[in-house]
Amino acid sequence: MSKKDNRKWISLIALVLQTTSLVLLLRYSKTIKTEQYLSSTAIVTAEIIKGLICIVLVWLESDRSMNRLFRVIKQEIYAKPYDTSKLAIPSGLYAIQNNLLFIALSYLNAATYQVTYQLKILTTALCSVVIRKKIIEKHQWFSLFILTIGVAFVTWPSSDEIHKRSTAQSQATWLQQLMGFGAVLIASFTSGFAGVYYEEILKTESTSIWIRNIQLALFGTLFGLTIMFCLDYEAVMDKGFFQGYSTIVWIIILIQAIGDFFTWEPHSF
């Protein structure tokens, strides 16, 4: 096995561990009986950390010279406003997606969420065909069809569950689950479109991937702050930005921040 194949396998294993641990910890953090943190602030914090990590990586590529670092950032970001603005679309979609996933995990159990969110594979394939004119083979379409059927089986309620929904409490629970499914479906679409759009930018231009992700983090922070003020302005003003933050929350933020690093290597996102 070549070194490139080894890196792909390592990245794949790390991605599986990262995704699984993130989902389980997110669900746990939403069910424990402690002061709840604000999901919107956690997303902003993760974007800031992600941007800082990428700045450090650019600094390392610049022979650890602060002057070169500032020069690169000025030349590639500040001096190219149109080029930088291209990242606004995927950044905005990722900000919406991340907030939707926090909502989904508040209403769905981890297993149902994890299976349902795999619909992003289908939306990514469809967006690849439309945006990048990618040709998908028949066996790949068949696999996507099986995936869709599998998700439908997992999410379709049993006869017992339908019967139990006769009470007001059960109906309220069903509405919450419906909101969770809706959030996952919208997040799956935004994930697919944003991923393909971003991949198109990376593969058609020569700008460093670390610079691109600094740009992504900049817009992600701005969009994240906008969503935070729209949804949680009063809560932030009342109890502060870091209310409810615990060790678990910080672990979630760090996992979220470094998660994308596992996906950049194998297929340029």
Structure description:
By secondary structure, the protein is mainly alpha-helical. The protein is built from 13 helices and no strands. The longest helix has 37 residues, at 168-204. It is globular and about 55 Å long.
What's the short version?
The chain is mainly alpha-helical and 269 residues long. It has helices spanning 3-31, 39-61, 66-78, 81-85, 88-107, 110-116, 119-131, 138-155, 159-164, 168-204, 209-239, 247-259, 261-267.
Spell out the blueprint of helices and strands:
Layout: H1 3-31, H2 39-61, H3 66-78, H4 81-85, H5 88-107, H6 110-116, H7 119-131, H8 138-155, H9 159-164, H10 168-204, H11 209-239, H12 247-259, H13 261-267
- Helix and strand run: HHHHHHHHHHHHH
Which whole number gives the mean pLDDT? 84
What is the first-to-last residue Cα distance?
Answer: 23 Å
Silhouette: globular
Major sheet attributes: none
Radius of gyration: 20 Å
The residue fraction in helices comes out at over 70%
Enumerate how many helices there are, as a single number: 13
Low-confidence stretches: 264-269
What is the oligomeric state here?
A: single chain
Number of strands: 0
Structural class comes to mainly alpha
Summed up, the domain count is 1
What amount of the residues lies in strands?
under 5%
Question: Features of this protein?
Answer:
269 residues, mainly alpha, 13 helices, disordered C terminus
